[in-house]
Amino acid sequence: MKPDFLIQKRVAQDNALAQCAAYSQQMKSIAQNTGWFESKVKYSFNDGEKRSEAFIKQEMDCANSELKTRRKTRLKLLYENEARAYEEELGRLGLAIQRMNF
Predict the structure, then answer these.
(1) Residues 84, 85, 90, CA angle at the centre, nearest 5°?
(2) Max alpha carbon distance in the chain (Å)?
(3) Four-CA torsion 78, 79, 85, 90, nearest 10 degrees
(4) Is residue 101 predicted with pLDDT exceeding 90?
(5) With 0-12 CB in 10 A as exposed, 13-18 as middle and 19+ as buried, what is 24?
(6) Whole-angstrom Cα Rg for the chain
């Protein structure tokens, strides 16, 4: 038996443990990256769906306000046309509407 046999055996064991620890660290890093990527792939649909729902809600709000404005304008025009027609009808009968300005 060589005098430094036990030392060489211990150095070989330490080297093997160091290699195993480095490999383990590398696998942990790969697992972490894989987990992150899988979560992004898995939940990317949900993120897109949330953005889509927000966009649809905003579009519906804008369409609703535009519809209200159009209805209000059409109603105002209707009232003006009916008032003009009523005044013309009274004018044909020889009557008029007396307005009082305050």
Answers:
(1) 100
(2) 138
(3) 170
(4) no
(5) exposed
(6) 42
CA distance linking residue 77 with residue 90, whole number of Å:
20
What does each C-alpha distance from 29 to 24, 36, 39, 40 come to in angstroms?
9, 11, 15, 17
Say which residues have a Cβ less than 8 Å from residue 87's Cβ, sequence separation at least 6.
96, 97
State pTM to two decimals. Answer: 0.48
- Integer angstrom CA distances of residue 87 from 51, 79, 82: 54, 12, 9
Q: 67: Cβ–Cβ under 8 A, 6 or more apart, which residues?
A: none
- Residue pair 75/82 in contact by the 8 Å Cβ criterion: no
Q: Give how far Cα 13 sits from Cα of 9, 20, 54, 55, 61, Å.
A: 6, 10, 60, 61, 70
Q: Residues 64-91: pLDDT tens digits?
A: 999 999 999 999 999 999 999 999 999 9
Amino acid at 57: K
